[in-house]
Amino acid sequence: MSEPVIKTDKLTKRFGDFIATNEITFTVDQGEIFGFLGANGAGKTTAMRMLCGLSIPSSGQATIAGFDVYKQTEQIKKNIGYMSQKFSLYEDLTVLENIRFFGGIYGLSDQQLKTKSEELIDKLGLQSEAKKLVASLPLGWKQKLSFSVAILHGPKIVFLDEPTGGVDPVTRRQFWDLIYNAADDGVTIFVTTHYMDEAEYCNRISIMVDGKIKALDSPANLKSSFGVGSMDEVFYELARGAKRSD
Question: What are the ABC transporter domain coordinates in residue numbering (predicted)?
Fold first, then answer.
């Protein structure tokens, strides 16, 4: 077995007397789709910022793609992709300009940029839109383009922060097809979502409550251990303080 691509041990972040993320411990394997769930204020964003090398932990340990979150934050940033709910695209640039801009940030050479830009345009079927402003694209296409740009440089891990917020169910399902394809290629997916049907698509999920991980397992095992039929019900049981039966 290879080493986990994400590994945390009692990772903690304090802001004064407030503990935003409280001794979270988990691992994520290569190619895994890992759901990181919790209500607003549960500590998800704080945890993700530490994992992305954007915030130094107060205590605990973590490695991302083999790099230490305290000492090797720049190496972490080069080995991950990131996509937010806002899709992280510049709407006043064309499709091609966005691809080349972000590819340049990720350190791709001019030749790599040329090759990967052409490959991506063909893959997404955006030949006729390549020189159009991103602002003119339908929401679903912006979403697909943003995800594709996030993995343009071949990262080991891509962090998706509420990537399907505000889009219709059909477009959400199509987006998850992109996630599956990336995972099949060995990319590790770390995703936050508040859609409980999407939690079902993950290999494993962790559920944070008040800064702590209160449950971590596959969706099927969690539903079984709480004796319920949906992830919505798992959340409800955790919210009312129920314990797993196993």
Answer: 6-235
